[in-house]
């Protein structure tokens, strides 16, 4: 799990679901389909959305574009606002 963005309004975490924990050897359980995704938390509403599959691929492309162009915080948060509009799940602490 890697924190990619954290502001007063949003947090974005990259989750590598099948990656071994730090310092842990990879499990030898046969072939696995690598799964990863992004969790976007809208701190204002207290809701989150998890992007995986093609949604995660589109968001990854957006991140690559941000790395190339160094957008302003406003531009990043406008984009995150669009994804946050999909949020249905309340944030729950585990």
What does this molecule look like?
- This protein is α+β, with helices and mostly antiparallel strands and 94 residues long.
- It has one domain (2-19, 34-90).
- Helix content is 31%, strand content 29%.
- The protein contains two helices and five strands, in the order ββββααβ.
- Strands 1-2-3-4-5 form a five-stranded antiparallel β-sheet.
- The longest helix has 17 residues, at 53-69.
- The model has no long low-confidence stretch (mean pLDDT 83).
- Pfam families: DUF3567.
- It comes from Hydrogenophaga intermedia.
- This is DUF3567 domain-containing protein.
- InterPro entries: DUF3567.
Structural class given helices, strands, pairing? Answer: alpha+beta
Q: How many distinct domains?
A: 1
Number of helices: 2
Principal-axis shape: globular
> Helices and strands, in N-to-C order?
EEEEHHE
Distance between the termini: 15 Å
Identify low-pLDDT runs: none
DSSP helix fraction: 25-40%
The Rg value, from CA coordinates, equals 15 Å
Q: Care to count the β-strands?
A: 5
Mean pLDDT: 83
For the largest beta sheet, what order do the strands appear in spatially? 1-2-3-4-5
- Sheet with most strands: 5 strands, antiparallel
Share in β-strands: 25-35%
Protein name: DUF3567 domain-containing protein
Organism: Hydrogenophaga intermedia
Features:
94 residues, alpha+beta, 5-stranded antiparallel beta sheet, 2 helices, 5 strands, DUF3567, DUF3567 domain-containing protein
Topology:
Layout: E1 2-6, E2 10-16, E3 36-42, E4 47-52, H1 53-69, H2 73-84, E5 89-90
Antiparallel strand pairs: 1-2, 2-3, 3-4, 4-5
């Amino acid at each position: 799990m890697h924190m990619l963005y954290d502001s007063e309004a949003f947090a974005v975490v990259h989750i590598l679901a099948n990656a071994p924990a730090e310092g842990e050897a990879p499990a030898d359980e046969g072939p696995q389909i690598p799964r990863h995704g992004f969790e976007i938390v809208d701190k204002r509403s207290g809701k989150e959305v998890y992007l995986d599959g093609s949604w995660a691929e589109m968001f990854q492309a957006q991140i690559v574009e941000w790395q190339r162009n160094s957008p302003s915080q406003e531009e990043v948060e406008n984009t995150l606002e669009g994804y946050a509009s999909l949020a249905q799940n309340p944030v729950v602490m585990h």
